[in-house]
Amino acid sequence: MLRLRPYKSSDAPYLLQWFHDEESFTKWCANKFTYPLTTEQLASFKVTIDDDPGAWSFVALNEAGIPVGHLHMRNADYTNQSIHFGFIVVDDRYRGKGYGKEMLQLAITYATTILKMKKITLGVFGNNPAAHACYKKVGFVDEQFHPAFFTYQAEKWDLYDMVYLCN
């Protein structure tokens, strides 16, 4: 069973261990951070988030209280009742065990119950089929497909915009 709580600076050492190569790191952040991730980048980002009334970062804690996942909510629009999820990652030692799905379900509950959002969006690269499948399992659907949307080194990555609509 996971718990979701706001990201704290003391969580940085955990996140730093979750990215073992530049490609998987880029799938997570789409060049919003530089590889390799550093404590300083996370500290600067935390300041930015703390100053943004429409953004929050969260960590998922396992039964022992250890961070095993991270996600970010941003662009909270209370008029249109929508929010965007991003920077979603699960420690690779815990992948394939349902942690990503559980973390997303907790985040959806927070967004819909606490923040009263009716629409949640996110983006996922086409070359990340495990994440794409995870998002579908919790109820996200493809809204728009962008071929060759993002350049990574000499490659062009497709992007799926996904949406979760609450009744």
Give an account of the 3D structure.
- The chain is α+β, with helices and mostly antiparallel strands.
- Helices cover 30% and strands 36% of the residues.
- It has five helices and seven strands.
- The protein has helices spanning 12-16, 22-29, 39-50, 99-114, 129-137, and strands at residues 3-6, 56-61, 67-77, 82-90, 119-125, 141-152, 155-165.
- The chain has a seven-stranded mixed sheet with strand order 1-2-3-4-5-7-6, with helices on both faces.
- The longest helix is centred in the middle third of the chain and has 16 residues, at 99-114.
Summarize the structure.
This protein has 167 residues and is α+β, with helices and mostly antiparallel strands. The protein is built from five helices and seven strands, in the order E-H-H-H-E-E-E-H-E-H-E-E. It has a seven-stranded mixed sheet with strand order 1-2-3-4-5-7-6, sandwiched between helices.
Summarize this structure as a short list of keywords or feature phrases:
single chain, 167 residues, alpha+beta, 7 strands, 36% strand
List how many beta strands DSSP finds: 7
Poorly predicted runs are: none
- First-residue to last-residue Cα separation: 26 Å
What's the Cα radius of gyration? 15 Å
Q: Please summarize the sheet with the most strands.
A: 7 strands, mixed
Fraction of residues in β-strands: 35-45%
Mean pLDDT: 97
The helix-and-strand class reads: alpha+beta
Which percent range fits the helix content? 25-40%
Put simply, the count of helices is: 5
* Strand numbers in spatial order across the main sheet: 1-2-3-4-5-7-6
Reading the helices and strands in chain order gives EHHHEEEHEHEE
Q: What spatial form do the alpha-carbon principal axes imply?
A: globular
